[in-house]
Design a protein that fits this description.
Blueprint (H helix, E strand, L loop, with lengths): L5 E2 L1 E3 L2 E3 L6 E6 L2 E10 L3 H18 L4 H17 L1 H12 L3 H20 L7 E4 L5 E9 L2 E5 L7 H12 L3 E5 L5 H13 L7 E3 L4 H10 L5 E5 L2 H14 L2 E5 L4 E5 L5 H13 L9 E7 L3 H13 L19 H17 L3 E4 L18 E4 L6 H4 L6 E7 L2 H9 L3 E2 L1 E5 L3 H10 L4 E4 L15 E2 L12 H4 L1 E9 L13
Length: 498
């Protein structure tokens, strides 16, 4: 342990230890003998320090012209391009997903950064004609103040960028609490902000648990906005906490996403999509393709091909370029996934087609590895059909018609992502209209969102806000309507114009 790096909080432009002096370990989920570093186990005093720094910095940062703020963000993003491989290697070590995916995670932060840099000159309001003479009307965006960001472990740089970049270009300041499983990726990101000249206090990072850091952050009177990505249960608690002070509250939560394969689909293409959608990131995506709804005419062909492909997946340490799927992020998540494998077999009575357990022996014993698992004969009343598993498990459900498939797609408490595989353009457009989700794909899996379109869902997936694209600005800004009367007289709207 003497050679293990200790990483500190970043508060008011300084790297500082938690006031308690306590730390926690960050270990590689593919090899738990590999201690990546120790991080600050912070508490309410550290949160208070960070919020105070952000509050003070906001006074000046909000007055920096937006194009000038964007110039700093441009330097940061250019620097991230140079640091991409190092950040990806660190991310695979601490999160577990394969190196190709972590390179994509960093690239997404780069893409989002460049997109939001443009918003330094594009925070468009609009003008409208007044109903009264000699009067000018317009609306503008204004920042909120201190924004508290609570980010997850599965996309530990991409998702922080979704929140940080729009918040900053709008003139807000930030306190971010990264997931305890992946603090290094956020540390690496924030360190670039520091080194590229972001003023002290504009961004602050406080590591630690949800109870000791997340809760004080979301209830702090000087925090104007909370943006959270994580489970629906925690999101509900955050919504309730924010309601007390009427804080802006953005929630991006769970998903139970479906791929609908019609009888006219390119089955091989659908299998490709299902394999990637279900087992990419070890299934640890809110957009994972965890329900496969397949027309009865092609279900046997689809199932046989998918099972064969899943059995051939190479599972292992994500730093090995030949590996297809990494471990679960931690022991607790692995045990949750294993429990759902048992539920599928025993409680639901589904047919286990492949996988169904933990991978053991050799290097597998050093980490939290689960088998790529597929269940067949799954019906909509089963728990594995309805509940988010967040792991390497997917299920196949038969449908007899297009209408039945649409009904099955919508038979969930969530509404994040869905897709259809079909060669029928009419059915594709009908599905786009009738499947109730925030994201929809045609002839592609349920994963693969791009940063220039809104990201988010409906029902228990979210609370109406979106990340990425222009919509990402709405979370971190207020609209102000401005009326300039240059008539020299009192004019009363809705009264004097009749």
């Amino acid at each position: 342990m003497a050679n293990v790096t200790e990483y500190k909080n970043y508060i008011n432009g300084e790297w500082v230890k938690a006031r308690s002096g306590q730390t926690f370990e960050n270990r590689n989920p593919a090899n738990t003998n590999d201690v990546i570093g120790v991080f600050q186990n912070s508490g309410v005093e550290d949160v208070n320090d960070a919020v105070a720094a952000a509050s003070e910095a906001y006074k000046k940062w909000r007055l920096v012209p937006a194009p000038k703020r964007a110039e700093i963000l441009l330097r940061i993003t250019d620097r991230l391009v140079k640091e991409k491989e190092r950040c990806a290697q660190d991310m695979t070590r601490e999160m577990g997903k394969i190196i190709k995916e972590t390179r994509g995670d960093v690239q997404e932060a780069i893409d989002l950064g460049y997109y939001m840099v443009g918003e330094g000159r594009r925070q468009f309001g609009y003008t409208t004609p007044s109903e009264l003479p000699n009067k000018f009307n317009m609306c503008v965006r204004q920042p909120l103040g201190v924004c508290g960001l609570i980010t997850p472990w599965n996309f530990p740089m991409a998702i922080p960028s979704w929140k940080m970049m729009p918040a900053l270009v709008l003139g807000n300041t930030i306190v971010i609490k990264p997931a305890t499983d992946t603090p290094l990726s956020v540390y690496n990101y924030v360190k670039i902000f520091d080194e590229e000249g972001l003023p002290p206090g504009v961004v602050n990072i406080v590591t630690g648990s949800g109870r000791n850091v997340g809760e004080p952050l979301m209830t702090h009177k000087d925090v104007s906005c909370i943006s959270f990505t994580g489970s629906t249960d925690i999101g509900r608690r955050i919504s309730e906490a924010c309601a007390v002070d009427f804080k802006h509250c953005h929630l991006e939560m769970g998903g139970k996403n479906c791929i609908f394969v019609m009888n006219d689909a390119d089955v091989d293409l659908a299998v490709d999509g299902a394999l990637w959608g279900a087992f990419g990131t070890t299934g640890q995506r809110c957009t994972a393709s965890s329900r496969l709804i397949v027309h009865k005419d092609v279900i046997k062909e689809f199932t046989d091909k998918l099972v064969a492909r899943a059995r051939a997946l190479k599972v292992g340490n994500g730093l090995d370029e030949s590996v297809d799927m990494g471990p679960a992020v931690n022991e607790s998540q692995m045990n949750t996934v294993l429990s759902y494998m048992d539920i599928g077999r025993n409680q639901d009575g589904a047919k286990l087609l492949c996988g169904g357990g933990r991978l053991t022996g050799g290097d597998y014993d050093k980490g939290w590895f689960t088998m790529p698992t597929i269940f067949g004969d799954v019906t909509s009343d089963m728990r594995i059909f309805q509940e988010e598993i967040f792991g390497s498990v997917t299920s196949i459900t038969e449908c007899g018609s297009f209408d039945e498939g649409i009904e099955l797609c919508n038979n969930t408490a969530y509404g994040l992502s869905a897709s259809i595989y079909t060669k029928d353009i009419n059915k594709a457009f009908a599905a786009m209209r009738d499947v109730y989700t925030g994201i929809f794909y045609v002839n592609a899996p349920t994963i693969g969102a791009e940063v220039h379109l809104p990201f988010g869902g409906v029902k228990e997936t979210g609370n109406g806000h979106r990340e990425a694209g222009i919509a990402g600005l709405d979370v971190f800004s207020e609209w102000k309507s401005i009326y300039v009367d240059f008539s020299g007289t009192i004019q009363r709207a809705q009264i004097d114009n009749n």
